[in-house]
Specification:
This protein is an alpha/beta fold. The chain contains 15 helices and 12 strands. Strands 1-2-6-5-4-3-7-8-9 form a 9-stranded mixed beta sheet, with helices on both faces. The chain has a 3-stranded antiparallel beta sheet with strand order 10-12-11. Helix 1 packs across helix 4.
Length: 364
Amino acid sequence: MQLSDSERRAWLRLSRTENVGPVTFQNLIARFGSASAALEELPRMAKRGGGKSFVLPDPRDAADETEKLAALGGRMIASCEPDYPRGLAAMDVPPPLISVLGHPHLLKKEMVAIVGARNASALARKFSDTLARDLGFAGLVVASGLARGIDAAAHEAALAVGTVAVVAGGVDIIYPPENDKLYAAIRNQGVIVSEMRLGEAPQARHFPRRNRIISGLSRGVVVVEAAEKSGSLITAQYALDQGREIFAVPGSPLDPRARGANRLIREGATLTEGAEDVLAVLSPMLGGNFREPDSMSPTPPPGDDAQADRIRTKVEEALGPAPVEIDELIRQLGAPPGAVQTVILELELAGRCVRHPGNRVSWS
């Protein structure tokens, strides 16, 4: 059902009430039928339970938070509402409310999470970039936690095709601070999600809750690099508990950052060397409506000559005598990868550009 504004504020107050966790919240809604009715009964119930006093959250605080979020262009979605992500709703105990900034329609699409080490190796970051891009072009939204390293690489690569950042503080808090430009880009092109109150700085105890939402949103979790006892392994454990698929990228046994992922493989996670390994597992359960890796990059619709001409002009302006990676060219131009590849092929056939090792091109 769709909540009224007043009932949504009641949900917020009830979810922020002392001693009311997600399970108790569900029980109260089931018993009284609404958060408003539950709030009226809570003081009497607490008194009957032996409590001496019971203070409900101030309704003005709930109104203030929802108004501030709306002023930022965001909204709150309750677990009973149709826009609430299906993956979270299927959890045993979903967060009663989530705050979102950006484009919430992405939350209705199928997702895969990519997580890993904050101090990731250069190769792991490059792999995450390629994996996120390929999975995005195959039709999956990429979810991660907006952390340094693997998370940031996955978000950046998936910006053009859809990415969801789940944060451990309020949706208005940028953490870590150096990801401010990435945060702004995701807010503009993707969606930022949190169950924490607006303005709340992330604390250590919040990150497991964030990880639980990352795995809950996703059909599968890919661990790229993860040391033992890392947060990425916590996300993988949540995924296992939630019945999600677990994928892991193998790494050198000499690198401590690879030990967690390697252990996951020994314990049954799908060994992942590219997007095709993820799609081979997920496609059957999702109806197989995904492009194969070799045909992931979309091509311009036939007859769209005006768009092709605009992209061709951009490519011609961006190319120079020094070789540039095609992936970097696509990222800088913000154009559909298939369209850029088509233009490069046309220029190559015309003898105007030349390919170099490392998937690079330059003027001939």
